[in-house]
Design goal:
There is one protein chain. By secondary structure, the protein is an alpha/beta fold. It has four domains: about 60 residues, GMP Synthetase, Chain A, domain 3; about 90 residues, GMP Synthetase, Chain A, domain 3, CATH 3.30.300; about 260 residues, 4-Layer Sandwich (Metallo-beta-lactamase, Chain A), CATH 3.60.15; about 180 residues, Rossmann fold (3-Layer(aba) Sandwich), CATH 3.40.50. The chain has 21 helices and 28 strands. Strands 12-11-10-9-8-7-28 form a seven-stranded mixed sheet. Strands 13-14-15-16-17-26-27 form a seven-stranded mixed sheet. A hairpin with a 2-residue loop joins β1 and β2. α11 packs antiparallel against α12, α11 runs antiparallel to α15 and α20 packs parallel to α21. It is globular and about 80 Å long. It starts with a helix and ends with a strand. The model has no long low-confidence stretch (mean pLDDT about 95). Bound molecules: zinc ion. Zinc ion binds next to loops.
């Protein structure tokens, strides 16, 4: 629907006392700012009817002129909300008439039947939004929210501009097409990037870097069809750097459009990006973008919830669905050309239950093209049973600590680290283990973010926290390591323990620091629990190297002797194994007409493509980087 028609439709349904001073888009949502106090307080029914009629999300807020002074509003809120709600922060989004109330117990802040919300509206005319504050303090969440609300004026204008673009005119004629260009992660793992084009729109899905590759770390944005400044939207499936690490680069080169993702993805990805810049700086590597570009990115994020359909361009509708991979990870469903073609892009996918998350969704309204990952898509990629893996992990930890050694587990900051924390916490609760678990730097910070987004976790975890009042991320066994000094203390002074540190592939970061000091002692153990990229130090050690080159801080090359015990446990993976990938395609309803395989090494892409073709009689392909396919 065009903007003019839309406003006409809305106006025709408004009563005479609505006194709408201003219409604003917030992306695809429409906000009406009323100058009439009575309509603000009693207009909900009218708005509900409008939403039903035009099938767009419409919100009613008070015009700036009605708002009580922020200081007095804050005072009112602080007096109203009960102590037990544990209020932590109050933010004002000045230009959008919103007050964001953060509390550790959001239910108590809202009050029975939302009574506190109503009281705040009646007394102050601000529209309150209650959010869960993290149970563990998170500086990054604070910094991100500060950034968003400080730039209220800019954000309001930016979101309006996005809406104007979404509601601009378009038509579908016989020349209409849907075309995908594979700019990274085709027949490889890392630097995911896929450009989707129609005659009307250009959308980029994921924009990652390959941290393990020295030769080709970045996606191929140099293709002729790619024009950073004229992209309509960027969609990020999840926070891992191989899917998100190149986004600030787009902002460095002039992109000012929206970035769609979930809230946990926004927070964790920002943290990982800042950490990445930090590590590059410390290790004297060339910076491809700066913290300023990351901030610019944050200002342009538009978070979405799972299962909520949103227009992102005149001819593309986006819905994010749980992918089961890490906190906030999404599969991307696109309805292109008003039902002309439907695409499901899985991103990284776990079709199996984990300690923390529910398995990926399989029921969709329509899917004609499925684009699926294949990290473990080879015939032999069968992950062992999870319980066996847990027993094996327990055994390694016990044997190592009983002989006085330390256990180093290199992890990506997000994903396996929290899964391992959950597993170890369960062992500790059962009395099978009793030892400190050190979370180095970013692992701790990411875990803190997890405590703000419990709603994204599976039922089991939610009931553990909400009903039984036990939060595994607040376990007293978890200890934070925040500096090099503390790191050395853990290495030199502490006894047997488990250390979780980034990077997961031993390419820079604290895990390499620990390895340097722990490697020569045969009492210690190194356990790989996640994918080790081709060319990474992790992969080299995993393959059995007992002497590896390492660069010191001073840039000197040394040879490190690997005397500690090395294990790999693949059963904790956040990726589906071969059987789960096949089962996902089998269970996917409706069955797609075409399956495109990406995000796997060459042989795995080809293997999975041929197996899916044989099993389900659908067209499959495994494009190469720089290939473009017409989807319809
Ligand atoms: Zn991932």
């Amino acid at each position: 629907m065009r903007k003019e028609e839309l406003f006409k439709e809305i106006e025709s349904r408004l009563p005479s006392n609505a006194e709408i001073g201003d219409y604003a888009f917030e992306g695809a949502n429409i906000v009406l700012y009323t100058e009439n106090k009575d309509f603000f307080l009693k207009g909900d029914d009218v708005i509900r009817k409008i939403v039903d009629a035009i099938k767009k999300r419409v919100k009613l807020r008070a015009d700036e002129s009605l708002l009580l002074d922020p200081e007095k509003t804050e005072e009112f809120i602080r007096n109203l909300i009960p102590k037990e709600a544990e209020l932590t922060n109050i933010w004002f989004d000045l230009k959008r008439s919103l007050v964001i109330i953060e509390a550790k117990k959001p239910g108590l802040a809202i009050g029975r039947g939302g009574e506190n919300i109503q009281r705040i509206k009646r007394a102050t005319f601000w529209t309150p939004k209650v959010r869960r504050s993290p149970a563990v303090k998170s500086d990054i969440i604070n910094a991100i929210r500060h950034m968003l609300y400080k730039n209220s004026d800019y954000r309001r204008k930016f979101m309006h501009k996005v809406g104007e673009r979404i509601y601009s005119d378009w038509t579908r004629d016989e020349r209409y097409y849907v075309r995908a260009s594979f700019l990274g992660a085709a027949r490889e793992v890392g630097r995911s990037a896929l450009l989707l084009q129609t005659p009307e729109s250009r959308v980029l899905i994921d924009c990652g870097i390959n941290v393990a590759s020295k030769e080709e770390p970045y996606p191929r944005l140099d293709v002729p069809e790619m024009d950073i400044k004229h992209l309509d939207a960027v969609i990020i499936t999840h926070s891992h750097l191989d899917h998100s690490g190149f986004v600030p680069f787009l902002f460095k080169y002039g992109y000012r459009g929206p970035v769609y993702l979930t809230e946990p993805t926004r927070d964790i990805m920002t943290l990982l990006l800042i950490d990445y810049v930090d590590i590059c700086q410390r290790e004297g590597k060339k910076l491809i973008y700066s913290v300023k570009d990351i901030e610019e990115m944050v200002k342009h994020t538009l978070p979405l919830e799972y299962e909520v359909v949103t227009d992102i361009t005149p001819d593309i509708r986006l819905t994010l669905h749980n992918a089961g991979h890490i906190l906030g990870s999404s599969m991307v469903h696109l309805n292109v050309g008003d039902g002309y073609h439907n695409i499901l892009y899985t991103g990284d996918l776990k079709y199996g239950d984990t300690k923390l998350l529910q398995r990926a969704e399989t029921e969709f309204h329509r899917v004609e093209t499925l684009i699926i990952e294949s990290t473990y898509g080879g015939k032999k990629d069968i992950q062992p049973n999870r319980e066996e893996c847990e027993r094996f992990l327990l055994q390694i930890i016990k044997e190592t600590t009983e002989r006085g050694g330390k256990v180093l587990i290199p992890v990506l900051g997000v994903g396996r680290s929290q899964e391992i924390i959950m597993i170890l916490d369960e062992m500790i609760r059962k009395g099978e283990l009793d030892l400190p678990i050190y979370l180095d730097g970013i692992v701790w910070d990411v875990t803190a973010i997890h405590t703000a987004y419990l709603d994204y976790m599976n039922e089991r975890t939610k009931s553990l926290v909400f009903e039984r009042g036990y939060n595994p991320f607040l376990s007293p066994h978890l200890r934070r390591v925040g500096s090099q000094k503390e790191r050395m203390k853990v290495i030199e002074e502490e006894g047997p323990c488990v250390i979780l540190a980034t990077s997961g592939m031993l390419v820079g970061g604290p895990s390499v620091e620990y390895l340097r000091h722990l490697a020569d002692n045969p009492k210690n153990s190194l356990i790989f629990v996640s994918y080790q990229g081709e060319g990474s130090l992790g992969r080299i050690i995993q393959r059995g190297a007992r002497e590896v080159p390492l660069e010191t801080f001073e840039g000197k090359s040394i040879l490190l002797k690997i005397n500690l015990e090395v294990y790999s446990i693949e059963g904790f993976s956040g990726h589906s194994d071969r059987r789960q990938l096949m089962k996902f395609v089998e269970d996917l309803t409706p069955r797609p007409r075409r399956v495109i395989i990406v995000h796997g090494e060459n042989s795995k892409c080809l293997d999975l493509a041929s197996s899916i073709h044989k099993a389900f009689r659908v067209e499959t392909s495994a494009p190469r980087n720089l290939d473009a396919l017409r989807l319809r």
